[in-house]
Amino acid sequence: MAQLLFSTSAFRPDGSSVEDVPILLDERMRLIEPVCAWLMHIALVRGRTRSSQTWRTYGEALYDWWQTLEANGWAWNEIGPGELAAYRDEMLRPRGDSGRPLARSTINGRLRTIGRFYRWSVANGLMSQVPFAGQEISLSRSRPLGFLAHVDANGGRAQANELTMRHVPMLPRPLVPEAIRRIMAGMSARDRLIVEWAVTTGIRRMEVAGLTVRHLKRSGSEPMIPVQIDETKGGRSRMIYPPAPLIDRTRAYVREERAIVVRRTAVNRADRDPEALFLTCRGQPMKPRRIGAMFTAAAEAAGVTATFHALRHTFAAAMLRFLQREAQTNPELNPLLTLQVLLGHADLATTAVYLRVVETDLSVIEASVDDLYAALL
């Protein structure tokens, strides 16, 4: 069966090191050339896709599709809508590991990735036509209009892959402060700090994993400390603002718990103290998946259904309500635009969903504001 690998720092296609580029091999360990060529194009050429997490998502989608091709004896460049529809329908059936089908958002994401690959293949002469048709759909009226909506000649309609399914996204679900406290109760000092960074700044798993000791500037008289992070989704640098007490507690972790781990594991490492802020018990940098697994396990132990990303939702909803309060005395403040910058969203419509969250359950959001940001008000 096909194998999915990722490049290391030794991969230097243009003289500079490029890590985490997906590489797909067939059952005989040969490069699957059309897929690898497209993934190389995405990672090395296409300017709009700079996130290694996006590369991984694309690689995993094509890896799953190639396994399906091999299992059914289908040639990748000879399939049509029927084979793709069968693949989609198989993903809709309950899976053995969980007993549930894949989420429609996951299925649609895989189909869109496969669609991108085949359109690129046609554009580069590897196929004569894409193996699916497009259809015109109406964009949701609940989605906030863009700034140039008044000059849009499409009339609120767009082309979509006919194989994708209707999917109504659920509103983000912030966690109430009590649930967060229950989850943190059984955590180590390191893991509690990770949760505090996420819930007070809104950073993602990969951004937590990208924090280094150098990010811990000495706190002064300001209640929040500006910190620039570069390991972000999309590779766009942005500023986050952790509370000064959190910076102080994190510096204490570096001096005490982290220093012990570094000394204990230094004998087994040829390199020096790693720059990563949060380390495993073996002295290795915490990876995004490990961070997510850590939080999920702690949530399950506390009887709370939540993923690490719920901490970002909690920050976003609470911060939006905080900014709305501030705007009452400062009319020049635009809460939604400010939140967009804090979250690092490229599209304001992505941020605008939190307006509906605040409107849906204001009591929970008010409790989060008072509990999480009382020291800053």
From TrEMBL:
GO terms for molecular function: DNA binding. The keyword Mitochondrion does not apply. GO terms for biological process: DNA integration; DNA recombination. The keyword DNA-binding applies. Residues 26-122 form the Core-binding (CB) domain. Pfam families: Phage_int_SAM_1, Phage_integrase. Keywords: DNA integration, DNA recombination, DNA-binding, Plasmid. Residues 170-367 form the Tyr recombinase domain. InterPro entries: CB (IPR044068), DNA_brk_join_enz (IPR011010), Integrase-like_cat_sf (IPR013762), Integrase_catalytic (IPR002104), Integrase_recombinase_N (IPR010998), Integrase_SAM-like_N (IPR004107), Tyrosine_recombinase_XerCD (IPR050090). Belongs to the 'phage' integrase family. PANTHER family: PHAGE INTEGRASE-RELATED, PROPHAGE INTEGRASE INTD-RELATED. This is Site-specific recombinase XerD-like protein. The lineage of its organism: Bacteria, Pseudomonadati, Pseudomonadota, Alphaproteobacteria, Sphingomonadales.
